Amino acid sequence: MKTQLSSKTLICFFLFLSTCFSSFAQQISFGKEYWYIEYYDIEGRGVVQLPDGGYLFTANDRVGAPISTFKTTLFNIDSIGNIRWMQRISIRPTCLTNSIIMDSDSTYLIFGQTWNPKSFGATCTFIQRRSVEDSLLLMDICLGDIQYVNASSMILAENGDIIVCGQGVSLDNQINGGYICRLNKEGNLLWASIIPDGCDTTYEGFNKVTQLTDGSFMATGWSTSSVTINLPYNLFIAHVSADGQLLHSKVYLPKYNNFSNDGWGICSTSDGNALIGSHARHYDTSAYEICLYMLTPQCDTLWTKFVPGPDGYGSFGSDLRKTLDGGFLICGGSTFNRFDVLPTVIRLDANADQIWAEVHPLLNCMTFLINVIETSDKGAAAIGTTRCPNAQAFHIYFLKTDSLGLVTGEKEISLPKTEEAELSIYPNPVRESCHIHFGLGARQIQLFNLQGQVTREWLVPQGCTFMDVSLKNLPTGIYLFRVTGNEGVKSMRVVKM
Prior knowledge:
Blueprint: H1 2-26, E1 30-34, E2 41-49, E3 55-62, E4 71-77, E5 83-88, E6 95-102, E7 107-115, E8 123-131, E9 137-143, E10 148-156, E11 162-169, E12 176-183, E13 189-195, E14 203-211, E15 217-224, E16 234-240, E17 246-252, E18 265-268, E19 274-281, E20 288-295, E21 301-307, E22 314-322, E23 328-335, E24 341-348, E25 354-359, E26 366-374, E27 380-387, E28 395-401, E29 412-414, E30 424-426, E31 433-437, E32 442-448, E33 454-459, E34 466-470, E35 477-485, E36 488-496
Parallel strand pairs: 1-29
Antiparallel strand pairs: 1-28, 2-3, 3-4, 4-5, 6-7, 7-8, 8-9, 10-11, 11-12, 12-13, 14-15, 15-16, 16-17, 18-19, 19-20, 20-21, 22-23, 23-24, 24-25, 26-27, 27-28, 30-31, 31-34, 32-33, 32-35, 35-36
């Protein structure tokens, strides 16, 4: 009986090990660089994981164009980083994306900056809703309620409403401050607030926002007495009610002169408080480190912790995310020496104590991560940008760790090809008319209905790269624009309202 029991125990033990090894074997980790064959800048900005284990991420690129005509490209990759497709999603002449968030298994939201159609020379925040299945544009809005909106972050409230924060200036140029607004799922503005820091001759704005357990919101950002980059930033915190009323605010001065202490991350905690990610010099070593503040909704400090870079490196953060087990993820960079910045992901427990830190070795390169998420295998996926000495431009850098923070896959390089003639349509959905940008060499534009019938067509004048076309008096529904030119045929669907 004793031998038989031992055998069963041994069998169970091996089955347990087999299960563990199988679980670890299913985890995928890699570091991957995406770049254009040509010397064009492209920088990763936001990432979400798809239900099938792959990823969507956004990037800003400048493909042979002036700086004022940045475009946004959407990438769809599989679980090991191979590109399934890439799509230029800029529907305006200039478009810079900030991030992407998953709303459900069927839709996601992208937001960023573009020119304000209501105020020439000013910017506004655009928000798009697209379908996961085919990236069809379902909603496109531009926040133009104030003259200037430089949005930094977007989250979803518990009820699905859209919360945006950043920097704003009122129409009469009398109020400058941190900007926060709330929109419903359809993109209708419910309220918007500009919150000054209470000091004269200052500039301030919010970088990140979170919803607290009581339904209110807390935002963190920066405040400075000048826009001069040589002067330090102060940590700026504001707490607003669910309907946008200011409840509390506070400015935290840096401990050292000429040292920035701006808030780059924030997460709510289960006890109703908020964890703030910032930067500071350590009290004893004066080393440049990530600094975490646990604050009450009244903006009072409960405790402060320093998060040193791995192996004693200096560290800086750019994104702070809560994990399913109540812990946190941080992404950013670590300074190995004055020439190298290494991509860094740090995992913390619920008490903000470090569990592991991963620094991927890209020696002689400047690489930092901007956005991080927890993945379905309890690892992390982060995206950012890199530039090495032999590179002539910035590249996308994507880092995937396993649940232990390890990156075992080799660095790989993909070579997506640039599009010579992009096709973009704005607005989409369209009511009466729309703007079509198609690049050089286009000869003819045709509009098809779902039955494949040509409903309208236009000839493109030689040398023309865009046209305004009318869809007035057309029935509501889905149509297909087809542009025929020297480089073949390009098509895009539009929704007629």
